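For reproducibility, we list the full input for the oxa(dethia)-CoA complex.
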Amino acid sequence: MTLRAILTGTGSALPRTRVSNAELADRVDTSDEWIVERTGIRFRHIAEPDETTATLGAAAAKEALAAAGLEAADIGLIIVATATPDNTFPASATKVQALIGAPDCIAFDVAAVCSGFLYAVSVADSMLRTGAARHALVIGSETFSRILDWEDRTTCVLFGDGAGAVVLSAKHVDDDQGILATRLHAEGKYGDMLYVDGGPSTTGTVGHVRMQGREVFRHAVTNLASVLGEVMTEIGLSPDQIDWIVPHQANKRIIDATAKKLGLPAERVVLTVDQHANTSAASVPLALDLAMRDGRIKRGDLVVLEAMGGGFTWGAAVLRV
Ligand code: UT7
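The corresponding predicted structure, in tokenized form, follows.
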């Protein structure tokens, strides 16, 4: 028997307001045609003032708990991956803890931007397997709309708000169920290719997203294909054994190019970028929840998660759901 982190539930939450490309084109110098052709994005959800990273994260967490058949009191670890916390501190994880009514437990945030959920899953996996908790809530939640420069058409059309959550439970198993491998990377020398031009310790302001899109695109395809190869090699599986890939939803062209590099057909790729745009740390758990709920991903499937973002940071995880 092996102690593994098993996926026992998923959930998600989206802000009430959905904005189409055409609506965006009314206020920004862009067009539906350009956005669809270059990114695959058609809609994004934008948070209203009463919707925050913590409230969206808590809503997703409640769904994931219900799916796992657990109560907030069962949770011993809460990790929120976010680059857009409600406050500089306390951590959004402690806010989520209070909102869902979880008693004393371990709660903290992880900041790895779009790869944040992969980092959080990897940390939770390690902590569950060393006995720090029996059940963990791992949440990706973002309100990127709050840090967008709405005058900058090269970035503001690309992002959206939302949250996704999973419950991971430590269980002794005698098969290959659960998280089988995770792999994380970071290369800080590329920090100025995708960053926010403010922060508490520098400008004392929140700042706005800045990106050299073409450079990020190029690195994304190379790094994602390479980290996917690494996790598959680690567990001795080949790409044709993957049932589903749940990629970070930044750009359909990045997703297509990465799948092609691995020889994975489009039918095995979960795509939500058209509906949600890039929700940063929320994008992978949001897509995972959608595909679990609509029956595409079934119990027993081999699923691969991957993401790449600011830092640069990137990572992948393989699990049998
Ligand atoms: O989450 C991880 C981080 N993010 C990413 O992975 C994003 C990675 N990058 C990308 O997805 C793409 O590079 C973008 C979607 C950001 C841009 O696509 P691109 O094909 O690389 O376009 P580009 O930046 O080379 O721009 C092409 C043209 C430019 O015009 P000129 O200079 O050729 O006349 C831009 O000014 O498109 C123009 N443009 C726009 N036009 C209409 C840029 N943004 C827009 C816009 N609407 N919103």
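The mean pLDDT is 97. The first helix runs from residue 21 to 25. Both points were considered when choosing residues for closer inspection.
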